[in-house]
Structures are given as structure tokens and as C-alpha cells.
Design goal:
Layout (H helix, E strand, L loop, with lengths): L46 H21 L10 H18 L4 H5 L6 H26 L21 H11 L6 H17 L9 H19 L4 H15 L7 H31 L8 E5 L3 H12 L5 E6 L6 H10 L4 E5 L12 E4 L3 E3 L4 E4 L2 H10 L4 E4 L5 E2 L46 E4 L6 E4 L2 E3 L7 H5 L4
Parallel strand pairs: 1-2, 1-4, 2-3, 4-7, 5-8, 7-10
Antiparallel strand pairs: 5-6, 6-9, 10-11
Helix pairs in contact: 1-2, 1-4, 2-4, 5-6, 5-7, 6-8, 6-9, 8-9, 9-10
Amino acid sequence: MASNISTPAPHRPPGPPTLAVQANGAAPTDPSSSGSAPAKPQKQMTKAERRELQERQRAAKAAKVAAGPQPVAGGKPAHLTVPAQSSSKRGARGAGAESPQQSRGPATPGLSAASSKGVKDAKAAAEDVVGRERGLRIFSHFALQKPVSHVVKGDVHPSIVRLGLMFAEFKICGANARCIATLSVFKQVIQDYTTPPNNTLSRHLMTHLSVQISHLVSARPMSVTMGNAIRQLKLEISGSNIDLPEQDAKDELCGQIDNYIRDRIIMADQVIQETATKKIHDGDVVLTYARSSVVQKVLLEAWAEGTQFSVIVVDSRPMLEGKRMLSALAAASIPCTYLLLPALGSVISDVSIVLVGAHSIHSNGAVFSRAGTALVAMMAKQHSVPVVVCCETYKFSEGVRLDSFTKNELAPVSDAFSTFPSNRPASSLVTQNQPNLEILNPLYDLTPPSCITAVVTEVGVIPPDSISSIPLALGRLI
């Protein structure tokens, strides 16, 4: 019996139990407990015990991240005490000894229950966040709006940096405007470019332009018009004469850029104006959606020729581009009616023709345009109203698009309720920066070819099922 008597531990002043973390990665134990056996090392644990230990460690980590450290008596965080006490209990029970709390009594009453509740709340909050992210993950492939950054990577021209900021802030909108702005800036880049020694302009300039293009794409995804124009510019660069002096070669490239803008955009719009104005007659009610630069030119040209008609401008949030169209038409004394997209059904029966623009047009006849165009076209088809799309041929894409979900952009977020109702302060109606609110504004939608009557281009009026013949009509690939 004398051999079972253990040597008494030296006397220490009473205080809260201390934590000791073992070097082999096992659970922390309480060395102040008398007669308690140390916890098993991980190598001696069973698979179930190791799994339980990992779950406790993950729970403690989640509580630390979600709730932060909670100070208790002795200055130690509460979420660190929970796994230590539970590990000490399990280790002591395995050795047949009593736990520190059983031998000394509870050091802090109610601490374990509160800590367990905090861990559960943290896990529930983490699962809630994961659930919200999983719910919105279906839209994660959309080109999300990125914060405007002034960080420039690579040898980027200052004019490209300025243009990228304007793209990101939506100060330049519209396929034609973006393409013209990009080509105009590329002229400055080419003029300021100097060929390095032991290189040719036709080879090294392509690499130099790729850096500029990457910066623009990082600000906002490239449009189909920009892609076609850049592809044509690279083709001209690769075919440039290597025997020409550098300045002459750069002047020739800038001249080809000017020719592209004149032939494929400016002259094309003039031809479309002449063709589309013949579709508007006296007494017609023309409906248009949002704002298209070529449609605006068509309406102004038809009014200047003396045709008497009225226009219904349909608009939608968040960009409200139709206001610019309305301002231009009203300045020309054209009778106009302005309404938002939900009220379309009340006026569609009075419409004679629908004129809309396009962001791009695809080989299967589908039109990719501002979000809401598909609804206008489908409503017009239901009421037997012809839908005419005004689109330049350089907006043609050889790809086939079946929906607007696989690839799209998000419009800039704006507060849709800041002015309504007027009897409440705007600060109480702000919808931005709300933790449980995700604002989703797709920028484009796809209008099926079955809802389109005809497409007016600079090569003529083409039915939607013959859009794939545009490259043949031009005599070359776009």
C-alpha cells in the first residue's frame, strides 16, 4: 500500500488553471491538476479520437475568426479554454483519474456553456455565409464590377490608363463610342512607340499593344466591336512593309485606323440612316428602347426630311440611357413619350414599328443588346408589330449565342429607391452596402431571331436567318 502513495506536489498559490500545449500536436492539458494523466499523443489515438480532436480544433478556429477573442478571468480568451478543458477531461477519464474541474471545482462558472454556445453561433454564422455565397455562385462568372485602381502593370501608355478608368466608370458607353475611343488612343500609342534595337516594328509592336489591350480588358471586358477592330489592326501590323522607315510605317498604320473608323462606323451609319428612314412614314408611332446612337441618327434624319411621326422612348434602370435619347429628340421638336419598361404593355398596341440598336449580332441571327430589348421585341411580336434592328456589320460575331447567361456584364450599381417615396428620407431607402442584399443588374440580354423582323446594315436589309451571309456580302472575313 505504501508504494501507491505519490509524492505530494510543491505548494503553489491558488489561481486559474494554466494551459500547456504539447509539442507533439496533441490537445493542450492542464499541468496544475494533481493526479491527472497527460493526454494521448496523436500517434496513440484511434481514428475516431483524431477526428474528434480535429473537429474541436476547427470549431475553436471558427469561433476565433467569427467572434474574435473573448477575454475572461486570467486574461485568456474563452475559445481557447474550451478545447483545453475538454481535452483534459478526456485524458483524465482515459487514465482513470478525475478532471481538474472535478478536483478543484469550476474556476469560472458557466464558462463552458457560454463558450460552447459561442462556438455553435460561430459555426451557424459561417454556414449562413457559405449558403449565401453558394446561392450567388450561379452568377459568379459574370464580369463583376471591379474597384477602379490606379495600379498599372507593365509598360502601359498614360492615355490607355485614362481610357481604362473611363471604361470602368462607364463614362464611355456604347459599342461605337468604345471602339472609336480605343482606336483613337491606339493611334497615340503607335505614334509614341519606338522600336527597340534588333527588333522589327511588325513584330515588337504586337507585343507592345498586347500590354495595352490587357489593361483595357482588366478595366472592363472587351466588346465584340473592339475585338473585331483590334483583330483588323493586328492584321495590318503583321502585313506592314519592313523596309519602310519607322515613322512612315507608323503614319501608315494611323491612316488605316482612320479608314476603319470612317468606312466601318461613320459611313456605315450614314447608309443605315438612308435605308431605315424609308421604313418610317407619316403618322407612325416609333418605339425605341434605351439609347442607340444609330437609331437616334435615323430618327433625327427622318424628322429632318419632313416625315411627321411621334416617338415612344422606353427606358429602364439602373443606367436610364433613354434620357439622353429623349433629350436629343425633344431638342429637335419631335413629339416624344417617355416611360419605363414595366409600362410597355399599355402602349405597345399603339406602336407602328420598333427600332432598336445592337451591341453585337451573331451568326444564328440572335441580337445581343441592352437588357430589356428581348422583352420589347417579344411584346412587339405578340402584338404583330415589326421589329427592326439597326446594326453595323463590324458588330457581327461568328459565334453562336443561345442565351445571355453564359457571358454577360453587370451594370454599375445605383440606388433604385433613393427618391421614392418622397415622404421618407433618402438615407432610409439606400440599398447599397447591405450585408443581406445582392444587387444584380445584367447589362445585356439576347433577343432570339424569331422576334426580329429585319436587320438593317450598310450592305442592305437582311432577314435574321441570313445573318451568317454578312462576311460573304463584304467579300472577306470580318
